[in-house]
Amino acid sequence: MRIEVPNSDLEEHVRRFGTRLEDYIWLPQSAENTRATYHPKLQQHGLLVAQERSRFKMSYNQRETDLHKQGALIIILPEFTQLGKLLELDEVYDGNGNLINRERVTEIKNEIFELRDPWRAEYIGNRFNTKPKVTTTSTTYFTINQDGKLIKVTESLSQDTLLNGDQLIDLSSWFKNITVQGLPNNQTQKGSLNYCSPRNYAVAMFYAHTLDAGLLCSKSDNVISPNGVREVRGRIFTI
Q1: DSSP characters for 72-88?
Q2: Would you say 86 and 104 are in contact if contact means Cβ atoms under 8 Å apart?
Q3: Distance separating alpha carbons of residues 215 and 123, to the nearest angstrom
Q4: Cα separation, 145 vs 139, whole angstroms
Q5: How far apart are CA 102 and CA 144, in angstroms?
Q6: pLDDT, tens only, 121-172
Q7: How many C-beta neighbours within 10 Å does residue 209 have?
């Protein structure tokens, strides 16, 4: 599938899809990260992450396809953990490179993580697959190359990934002990966040409500649900 719009050209996203850059958070990436685009005003590499969830009451596959048609992708776990840490900082910028006021940043953070009603949940763009004979688990996600071609990427999970079924972990400890794929590693401390480790033929989801919150890597991709997704623009794969 060809998206037609190079994912590195943010202005073309504005022209073609009507993307409002002020509706996105600028998620900085390292200069060495060739999977990110460059922001001339902020003079750094990064990604655009939607401030709000979207595409409710659809199946995972429907959400994914609809985003691809709009030149966008679902946020994946490394980006989700980076976003969580970014929202704790004093300076957070929008897609135009303008500072987002602190009240709005807190509002976005609480919408994702705070223990309160109503139930909120968002799918993450990671699929999981386990090969029983070799007992290895991999994750698959999409990206868009510089020519606008949709690319499917599959990676084996890091050996230090926390894979001991269902357990309670600490959110801040997870953000400090992240694998390459954004999952908690074996050094993650116990806590109150529900964590369901990757299951075969499953997708990831983060939820929060008044009683608890959790990262569930065990959800079906063909169920229509009220959960939304958080779109990302600017993720590039150059190989």
Answers
A1: -EE--HHHHHHHHHHTT
A2: no
A3: 10
A4: 19
A5: 32
A6: 999 999 999 876 656 899 999 988 777 788 899 999 999 999 988 999 999 9
A7: 15
